[in-house]
Amino acid sequence: MYRKLIIIFLIVITNILCLSIINNNTSVEPNIEDEYIVDNSRDYLGIIEIPKLKLRRFFYGFDDERNTVEKNIMLIEKSNMPDKENGNIIFASHRGNSKVAFFDKLHLIEVGDEIIIYYNNRKYIYCYNNRYDVPKNGHIRIVRDLNKTALTLITCKKGTNKQTVFVAYLTDNIL
Predict the structure, then answer these.
(1) Is 135 part of any domain?
(2) Has residue 27 been placed in a domain?
(3) Between the CA atoms of 84, 28, 94 and 153, what dihedral angle is there, to the nearest 10 degrees?
(4) Residue 86: how many CB atoms within 10 A of its CB?
(5) Whole-angstrom Cα distance, residue 68 to residue 129?
(6) Predicted local distance difference test score (pLDDT) of residue 96
(7) pLDDT of residue 153
């Protein structure tokens, strides 16, 4: 009797573990909680992560068809990659309630919050510093310290004809 119960128990536990493994393996995005090396054999350029917002997304190269705000977080063409000293990597994304509104909760970040970029086998840690609003007219003047390596995030401001620009500065990069 006990032997049958033990066998049934082991079968149930094995099935639960198998389902857990299957669910973990079907993830679209990598588990980068402890792993931050970007797999260069994949077709993405890097990963942007905002831990406070639980946001983690791939980003793609300038010429990639997925590099648009209609599909993803868009890497703006005038960007420098994070490894460029005193450069500025710039992203834009929608706000709202659509499935591509990846910056919907961006207004919740506070000065000092981390934004992380995983690029070229390195982890770049930025500290959010400032935000300001600009008219939504197709042109944005980015106000930042040109003597620091920066990250800029741009999204529309809810209920207005403006955009909000968020600026962060590089604090660390880890191999």
Answers:
(1) yes
(2) no
(3) -20
(4) 13
(5) 26
(6) 87
(7) 98
